[in-house]
UniProtKB/TrEMBL annotation:
It comes from the Bacteria. SUPFAM superfamilies: Restriction endonuclease-like (SSF52980). PANTHER family: GLR1098 PROTEIN (PTHR36558), RESTRICTION ENDONUCLEASE DOMAIN-CONTAINING PROTEIN-RELATED (PTHR36558:SF1). GO terms for molecular function: endonuclease activity. This is Uma2 family endonuclease. Coiled coil: none annotated. The keyword Nucleotidyltransferase does not apply. Residues 13-175 form the Putative restriction endonuclease domain. Keywords: Endonuclease, Hydrolase, Nuclease. It comes from Thauera sinica. InterPro entries: Nuclease_put_TT1808, Restrct_endonuc-II-like, Uma2.
Length: 186
């Protein structure tokens, strides 16, 4: 009996073509694809709340807000991710159909299955995107918000948002009230 032959890893171009045909979303890292699970109601609600608040606050600026189904390319890591919410102020991104390249802000809503990865390897890949200035992690179970800001090229500063305090995003000059982020969440 012959042994199964290893499948050569996808190239990024192969992934982008393949992903367009898939009914489910997959993230791509170094030639491997990873299926994404569905999100909980609370996860979707928080993502929608953050998207809506940012979209309204950024109206009339060169920045635009995108969510869940828009891929983000982390070129230095040969990766494509689906952040829960992202903001880009890059004119070329606003013309893109498949993925964004120059985010200013990325927001991830944590789930038990992805929390360690979002905080670890995924955040490491995001940090290598030169345009990224702010990264936010929202934990719906603990109602915690962690706000990371780039203060120098390779230095990130953590600001833990106290319960009931607003999320202040100085890079975008936007403030989102705590109650707005967790609106309609049990």
């Amino acid at each position: 009996m012959a042994l199964p032959q290893p499948t050569p890893p996808f190239t990024a171009e192969d992934y982008l073509l393949w992903e367009e045909q898939q009914p489910e979303k997959h993230e791509y890292v170094h030639g491997e694809t990873f299926a994404m699970d569905g999100a909980s109601r609370r996860h979707v609600t928080i993502s929608g709340n953050v998207f809506a608040a940012l979209d309204a606050a950024l109206e009339g600026t060169p920045c635009r807000t995108y969510m869940a189904d828009m891929k983000l390319r982390a070129e230095a890591d040969e990766a494509y991710f689906y952040p829960d919410v992202l903001v880009t102020c890059d004119a070329e991104d606003h013309k893109a159909e498949q993925f964004m390249r120059a985010p200013t802000l990325v927001v991830e809503v944590l789930s038990p299955a992805t929390a360690a990865y979002d905080r670890g390897d995924k955040f490491a890949a995001y940090r290598r995107i030169p345009s990224l200035k702010e990264f936010v992690l929202i934990d719906p179970d603990r109602r915690r918000i962690e706000h990371y800001r780039r203060t120098q090229e390779t230095v990130w500063e953590l600001h833990e948002i106290e319960p009931e305090a607003p999320l202040v995003l100085p890079g975008l000059e936007v403030t989102i009230p705590w109650d707005r982020i967790f609106r309609n969440v049990d």
